[in-house]
Amino acid sequence: MLKLGILISGRGSNMLVIIEKIERGNIPAEIACVISDKEDAKGLVKAREHNICAFFLDPRGLSRKDYDKLIVYELKKRDVELVLLAGFMRIISPYFVDEYKNRIMNIHPSLLPAFPGLHGQRQALEYGVKITGATVHFVDYGCDTGPIILQKPVPVLDDDTEETLSERILKEEHKIYPLAVKLYAEGRLEVIGKRVKIL
């Protein structure tokens, strides 16, 4: 059974959807741990409600690499095979990427490579695009530049605010992130350079 480690910074809404899919038997995986860089992250409480090992790792006073070494130590101690970033608001170090090459997934609220980084929804509105969306990708050394696994378009409406657009994108995130994890767990993802082939 595939062992997952999930990293969060906030409420963990994508994490919760994945937990529910696993509990229903839709994803052949188990969550070994949930780690947050924020002590008050609501997602920690939600994970514990599902009897999942969930804890805060304090990044204060540590370099990015040293903090990532702590995370990787906790993940490897629990035999984690796939790492999921679910609203984890830190850029991870090359050390972390190398330790879990093509085994770290992230979800982003735009159709990458458009609007990487923070506030993808706001960027889409400011640019005036008619379509944006959600992307699940593997993490590489860049910011939202890794191989793309799945994408889902979301129309931008004339009266959209950042909040309304974010809400509609989130609904699609909740569909494609669990699906990407399921495909990985079933051994159906093959990374060839920058492309991800679904077998």
Biggest sheet overview: 7 strands, mixed
Write down the CATH topology of the largest domain.
Rossmann fold
Oligomer: single chain
Treating each run of at least 4 consecutive H or I residues as one helix, how many helices?
A: 6
Please state the average pLDDT score. Answer: 97
CATH architecture classification name of the largest domain: 3-Layer(aba) Sandwich
Topology pattern, helix = H, strand = E: EHEHEHEHEHEEHEE
Low-confidence stretches: none
CATH top-level class of the largest domain: Alpha Beta
Strand order of the largest sheet: 3-2-1-4-5-6-7
CATH superfamily of the largest domain: Formyl transferase, N-terminal domain
| Portion in strands | 25-35%
How would the global form be characterised?
globular
**Tally of structural domains:** 2
Q: What is the CA–CA distance across the termini?
A: 19 Å
E-strand count: 9
Structural class: alpha/beta
Residues in helix, %: 25-40%
Rg value: 16 Å
Description:
This protein is of the alpha/beta class and 199 residues long. The protein folds into two domains: 1-100, Formyl transferase, N-terminal domain (Rossmann fold, 3-Layer(aba) Sandwich), CATH 3.40.50; 106-199, Formyl transferase, N-terminal domain (Rossmann fold, 3-Layer(aba) Sandwich), CATH 3.40.50. The protein contains six helices and nine strands. The strands form two sheets. It has a seven-stranded mixed beta sheet. Strands 8-9 form a two-stranded antiparallel ribbon. Helix 4 links the parallel strand 4 and strand 5 (104-108). Helix 1 (13-23) runs parallel beside helix 6. The model has no long low-confidence stretch (mean pLDDT 97).
